[in-house]
Amino acid sequence: MAAPRLEIDLDKIGHNARTLVERLGTRGISVTGVTKATLGSAEVAATLLQAGVNGLGDSRIENIEAMRIGQPSAPMTLIRSPMLSQVQRVVRCADVSCNTEIEVIRRLSTEAQQADCTHGVVLMVELGDLREGIMPDDLLDCVRETLNLPNIDFKGIGTNLACRSGVAPDARNMAMLTELAEQIETTFDLRMETISGGNSANLQWALSGAEIGRINDLRLGEAILLGCETLHRQPLDGLYTDAITLIAEVIEAKVKPTLPTGQIAQNAFGEIPTVADRGQVTQAILAIGRQDTDPCGLQAPAGIDIMGASSDHLIVESNGDNLSVGTEVAFQLNYSALVRSMTSPFVTRNMKPA
Ligand SMILES: *Cc1c(COP(=O)(O)O)cnc(C)c1O
After folding, report:
1. Which GO terms describe its molecular function (predicted)?
2. pLDDT reported for residue 270
3. What is the CATH superfamily name and number for domain 10-226?
């Protein structure tokens, strides 16, 4: 079979999604299944919808367009603020988008009028992580103008934590989101459909028995695909952490010294490596590199250690098995390695069940 390739077990992904949908359901929270790490995979999209997610979320309109082909009527949310240069595509393909700039929402309104459709808007609020979000003091003004824009359907508010600064979702920032929701509803005499509390980093908070307040949605990607929460990257009870693996093939296997010979200057990536002399080792090279994945995000099977990587070569040492030429090795991936493998044209995918 072709290598390198991702082995994607759709049953395991479906199980993870269903389990989270059920657990959060008991707390009154629905799941938006985030697909951005799968390059708009039609199979993953279908699997998540079958598992009971409320809708799909993706940060790229290209992925939403790709998923739309197989899912003409599934609710899809663009979870990154639309680019002005893409607003026309956004109103055509996404039902809802997350927004932080009124200028963009005005343009969405214009394009939605032209396309004779309505476009849903969730306003993202800054609650401390300092990535996207309207400052809380500016929120009411933004809601007011959004409500007045033709062909725009104000859906609710959301926040995103733990992405840039690692700010953990907790009782304080989640209560603030609830408070802002109530303030909006009182001021404008309306009931919001969506109060989206965050991403996979919110799971500990959401499942801890904490006061949920008005939060009724989480946007989950990594927890579904990799089976872990994302504050400490701990596996989640009852979820598969091996739904996706990356297979690479050995192209050289030799016993070599650990110490390089000659004067040491920069390597291909501007680093000056320092190595300890451990004598002779059993080294293998796999045909995969920084063009295909994030080598730092790979976890090798027991008995194999990753020693280094360049654009096209991954160097490993094995302390047992002889990794002969042609052998396939299966790696576990973190999110960074997963996203890069999914978007590399050199990495194929094998979906189970196909
Ligand atoms: C990526 C992303 C998510 C999903 O994050 P996970 O950690 O994969 O659950 C949710 N919301 C926004 C805005 C995102 O960019």
Report:
1. alanine racemase activity; pyridoxal phosphate binding
2. 86
3. Alanine racemase (3.20.20.10)
| Predicted pLDDT of residue 85 | 98
Ligand 1 site-directed mutation target among 29, 59, 134, most atoms within 8 Å of CB: 59
Whole-number Å distance between alpha carbons of 89 and 82: 10
Q: What is the number of other CB atoms lying within 10 angstroms of the CB of residue 259? A: 10
Which of 21, 34, 167, 229 gets mutated to test ligand 1 (max ligand atoms within 8 A of its CB)?
34
Whose alpha carbon is nearest atom 5 of ligand 1?
199
The pLDDT averaged over each successive group of 10 residues in the chain (354 residues) is: 97 98 98 97 98 98 98 98 98 98 98 98 97 98 98 98 94 98 98 98 95 98 97 95 98 95 87 89 96 97 95 92 91 96 96 83
Q: Which atom of ligand 1 is nearest to the CA of 132?
A: 13
| Ligand 1 center–CA 287 separation, angstroms | 31
Cα 55 to averaged position of ligand 1 atoms, centre (Å)? 14
Report how far ligand 1's centroid is from the alpha carbon of 1 (Å): 32
Just list the catalytic residues: 36
What was the pLDDT predicted at 6? 98
pLDDT confidence of residue 269? 82
Task: Find the 220 Cα to ligand 1 centroid distance in Å.
Answer: 6
Where exactly are the structural domains of the chain?
10-226, 244-333
CB 258 within 8 A of CB 275: yes
Angle 250-253-254 from CA coordinates, rounded to 5°:
165
Nearest CA to ligand 1 atom 3: 199
Residue 261 CB neighbours (<10 A)? 6
